[in-house]
Sequence to fold (254 residues):
Amino acid sequence: MPYHQLSSAAEVRGAISDKDSRYLVLFCWSEASEICVDLNEVMRTLAQMVDESSSGSQQIKIFGAEAKAAGDIFHELGVDSVPVVLILHNGSVEQRILGADPAKIHDAVEAIMASHATEAEPLETKLRRLVARAPVMLFMKGSPDQPRCGFSRSIVELLTSQGIEFDFFDILQDNSVREGLKSVYQWPTYPQLYARGELIGGLDICKELATAGQLQKEISASFMIGQQTAQGRNVLEDGGSVELLVDHFPFKPQ
Fold:
């Protein structure tokens, strides 16, 4: 099922009360917040990943609900801050994910899929899921704190100097990912940098983009440090203010 925006409180109630046995992942957001608007793209990519899974679409449906359209239903669900993702099953909230944390949202959906998996996940589906796990993903040798090769160390230093937050995957821990990315995305070397699931390139490309002042333009400005404050204010339809919670990525420049 494609990512769909629920346009009224009645639609939200209908989705929650639906006797469908699937999990409902509900993204509660406000159009007044840039980071909420951009997180919608993450949810759309996540829904596409679920749809492409052989079993995911049978287990999970992903909807969005904007604060003004949802009205009082947010309060009924105990939502007093946005962004927040609610994971519901049989009409009950089982998990809340506060703030803009794409990796945590992804992991929660992945956990549902894994717990109900009936067959092995195809490699290409796994790879597309991984590259979209966070808005900016770096596939490297080792970790940002302990790079296992000079190229990986260099790209971490470059991203840090550019103020770019990112999640990472250590390809030395999974050879199927290491070899699979080379084939699926037709890029033979590491590290590899992705933004919103799309390949940007390796170290040399990133250096060239940075030198030309284009690297940050390749990556959404909403994911740059300093573009969003750690806390902000939003206004719901009834005029009440709610706190905007913004979590940072698993790795951020110090």
